[in-house]
Amino acid sequence: MFVKVCGLSTAESVREAVEAGADAVGFVLTASPRVVSPSQASSLLAAVPAGVSPIGVFRHEPVADAVAIARAAGLEWIQLHGPRSRQDVAMVHDAGMKLIRAVTMGAAPEEFEDWGEDLLLIDAAVPGSGEAWDYASVAALPALQGRHWLLAGGLDPVNVGGASRAAHAWGVDVSSGVEASRGVKDLAKIRAFVHSAKGADAPV
Ligand SMILES: O=C(O)c1ccccc1NCC(=O)[C@H](O)[C@H](O)COP(=O)(O)O
Questions:
Q1: Ligand 1: does its nearest atom lie under 6 Å from the Cβ of 171?
Q2: Could you tell me the distance, in angstroms and rounded to a whole number, from the CA of residue 81 to the centre of ligand 1?
Q3: Where are the coiled-coil regions (predicted)?
Q4: Distance between CA 13 and CA 204 in Å, rounded?
């Protein structure tokens, strides 16, 4: 199970996610209670070892702006929320970067198709809201079969196992569910989430 922990803003929280076994860490570079500046994100990279992917998260920014900001921060991966096109995916790759394309669980069927992104992320209606949804509703979508995609929205250390199994997810992403209060990460919850998620696809 691939695990991404998002909305990290301190070196301690990055280290906790990495030591727990996270595969990716997310830095929010758009309007959010979790926002970090490009220079803060750049500093946090010191706590990210090779083999763990640091990802810059954007919402309404045009692709060119997101690419420029991520590049200034030293990031090679970006995560784009908001309405996007196949041309946007190509622009990210033409810039030499990798892409997580985020769609909401109620998106039109064509948005779940493979547009060439490196990973698809299926989220609640409002990103970073901590809002749970009917995870099983995407399990049988033909466009997802055999794909690498991340489940997000309202996950926490307790529900991640059942949610990922219900959705047939390849990986998971969390932010609110590992916080003590909005925008403030809880180190014990980060560790518990990564361990729960990593154990979720083990035989029971
Ligand atoms: O975290 C935010 O505030 C945010 C703002 C704008 C775009 C994306 C944002 N977060 C993305 C994520 O944290 C995750 O990809 C995902 O939405 C998980 O959210 P949560 O339900 O809080 O676990």
A1: no
A2: 9
A3: none
A4: 30
Query: Which residue carries 């003590």 as its tokens?
Result: 180
Asked whether the beta carbons of 16 and 178 are under 8 A apart, the reply is no
Place of tokens 């690419």: 67
In the numeric block, the tokens 């997000």 are attached to: 152
Query: Can you give the pLDDT at residue 157?
Result: 98
ipTM: 0.97
Q: What is the CA radius of gyration of the chain?
A: 15
82 C-beta closer than 6 A to ligand 1: no
CB proximity list for 111: less than 8 A, separation 6 or greater: 103
Residues 202, 204: Cα–Cα separation, whole Å: 6
* pLDDT tens for each residue of 151-201: 999 999 999 999 999 999 999 999 999 999 999 999 999 999 999 999 966
| 129-57-78 Cα angle (round to 5) | 145
